[in-house]
Amino acid sequence: MAGNPSSTGLMDERVDLPATVPESARSRRIQTLLALLLPLTDAAMLLLAFFAGYQARLYLPFFAQPEGQPPFSAYWPIMTVQVITILSMFYFSRLYHQRRSYSRIDQLRTMIGIITLAALLTNGIQEFFFRNTDLYVSYPRSLFFYIWIFSVLLAGVGREVHRLVQLRLRRRGSLRDHLLLVGAGRLIREVAGRIKNNPELGYHIVGVVTDKDEHQGKMLGIPILGNYPALKDIIDQYHVQQVIIALPDHQRDNLVELITMCQRGQVDIKVYPDIFAYMAGDLNVDDVAGTPLITVRDIALRGWKLSLKRGLDIFGSLAGLTVLSPFFLLTALIIKLESRGEVFFTQQRIGLDGRPFPMIKFRSMRPDAEAGGPGWTVKDDPRVTRIGKFMRRTSWDEIPQLINVLLGHMSLVGPRPEQPAYVEEFQRKYPRYMERHREMVGMTGWAQIHGLRGDTSIEQRTTYDLWYVENWSLWLDIKIILRTVYQSVFRQSENAY
After folding, report:
1. Best CA proximity match to 188, nearest among 218, 213, 210
2. Are 361 and 347 a contacting pair, CB within 8 Å?
3. N or C: the chain end with fewer CB closer than 10 Å?
4. Considering the domain boundaries, does residue 192 fall inside one?
5. CA 404 to chain centre
6. Rounded CA separation 169/28 (Å)
7. How far is CA 306 from the centre of its chain?
8. Across-strand partners of 242?
C-alpha cells in the first residue's frame, strides 16, 4: 500500500554519511534579533507618526490652523493607548510572522485596516474612559486624520526598511536556513536552479537526496548526500530546517512515506504541487522565486491561536495546582502508607515535534511494575495498587501533569503522549501518525473523551487526534476539558483502568 513503510523498505536501511554541516548559531541569533526588531520598529514609527501628525496640524494648510493646541506632552496617554492597540492587532493578525515570500500590497492593505480600526477604538477609549479625568485632551478630527495618514505611511516605511535589511542579510549569507532537497529528475533540478539563482530567499542548500544509491557527485553544483533511506540521518546530522520534496510521477507512491521520514524536530516540509488524497487539513501555498509550493507542515504558522491556547494552559495549570494542592498532599500520604517507593512516577514521553520530555504522574503501580519492560495497562492489572485503581478510574493519577503544562511540556488538551518505543513502532505502521505531534500533547484529548485510551485501536485514535489538530478552536478545548472533568468525577471514562 502506498505510504506503508513495509511495502517499499525505505526506512529499513542505514547508510554512512559524509561530514556534517555545523549548525549556524549566528544565523539563529540574527533571526531572533530581526524578529524582536520588527515590533520595536513598528512602535518607533507609530510614535514618530503621532508626533508628525501633531506638528502637521500646526503647519500644514489643509485644515484651519488650530488655536491654543495643547502641548505634545498632553497627548502621551492617548498616544500610548493607540500604539499598544495597533501593535496588539498586528500581532493577532499574524503580521509578526514574516513569510519567506509575501505580497507587500496585501500586507499594506491589512495594515491600513488595522490602523484605521485601532485609531477609531482609541478615539472611543478617549471619549468613554478619559473624559472628565486628567488624561483627557482635545482630539479633533484634523489631528485624527494627520496621525492616521502618518501612521500608515511611516509604519509601511519601517516595515520596508526591515524587509530590505533582512534581504541584504540573506544575500550576504548571514541569514540562511539549511534546506534539503528530496526528489529526482526534472522537478528537483528546476527547484534547485530557482533557489540557487535567488539568494535573497535565504536558503543554504546542504544537499540533495535522490532515489539512486549514490553518495558522491553533484546536481547543479549541489552535493548528493545519499538516497531516501538516509533521510532521517541526513536531517539530523546536517541540522536541516526546511525540506522540499519534488518527485516525478512514477515515484508518487513514496510521497507519504518520505513525508513521514522527514518529520524530525522542527523541520518545515514543503512539497511540489500535486493532488494529495491523503491530506485532510488546510493547505497553504508558498512561493519560491515564482515556483508554487504547497506547505504540508509549517510549524511556524500558529500565530495568535498558539498564544491563546498557551494562555489558557498557564491559567488552568496555575489555578489547578493552587486549588488541588491540599489533595496532592493527601494523595502522597496515602501512596506512601500503602507501598514503598516514590510518590511520583516519571516516564519519558514524546511531545511536540518529536521532542522527549519527562511526564509526571502519581505512582499507581508497584515500584517493580515495569521490571520486565513497558506494557499497556489492562483491566484488573495485578501491578496496580489499591489506591492506584481509584486514581486510574478517575484519572487522578494524571493530575500532576499540571506541572508539565506549566513548564510548557504539555497542554491541557491535545493528543496523548506515548513512550519513545511506541512512537517508533506506530510511525512505521501508520503513515500519518507523526502529524498528531504538530500540536502540543495534552493531559486529555478528543480521542480520550471518546474512550480511545489504553489498549485501544491506534489507527482510530490517530484519526481522532488528527481531526482535533485540524479543527482546533478555543471552544473545542473548553468542551473537551468540561467533558473530561464530568467523566472523571462520575467515573464514566471508558477504558480507564
Report:
1. 210
2. yes
3. N
4. yes
5. 18
6. 12
7. 7
8. 179, 268
Q: What is the pTM of this model?
A: 0.49
Domain end marker among 297, 321, 353: 297
Considering its fold, how many domains does the chain have in total? Answer: 3
Q: Let me know whether 118 and 184 are in one domain.
A: no
Return the SS3 of 259.
helix
Please say which residue of 238, 270, 297 terminates a domain: 297
The reply to whether 140 and 75 lie within a common domain is: yes
Q: Do 188 and 219 contact (CB within 8 A), yes or no? A: yes
| 427: Cβ contacts below 8 Å, ≥ 6 apart | 260, 433, 434
Which domain covers residue 49, as residue numbers?
Answer: 26-172
Q: Is residue 495 part of a domain?
A: no
Q: Same domain, yes or no, for 34 and 110? A: yes
| Segment 195-218, tens digit of pLDDT | 887 777 888 888 888 877 655 677
Residues in Cβ contact with 421 at an 8 Å cutoff, skipping those fewer than 6 apart: 374
**Cα–Cα distances in Å, from 289 out to 98, 191, 221, 430?**
16, 9, 19, 35
The predicted-structure confidence for 231-275, as pLDDT tens digits, reads as follows 888 888 888 888 888 887 667 677 888 888 887 767 888 887 644
Does residue 494 fall inside a structural domain? no
* Three-state secondary structure string covering 407-419: HCCCEEECCCCCC
Q: Are 270 and 292 in contact (CB under 8 A)?
A: no
Alpha-carbon distance of 436 to 470, in angstroms, equals 9
Distance of alpha carbon 340 from alpha carbon 342, whole angstroms: 7
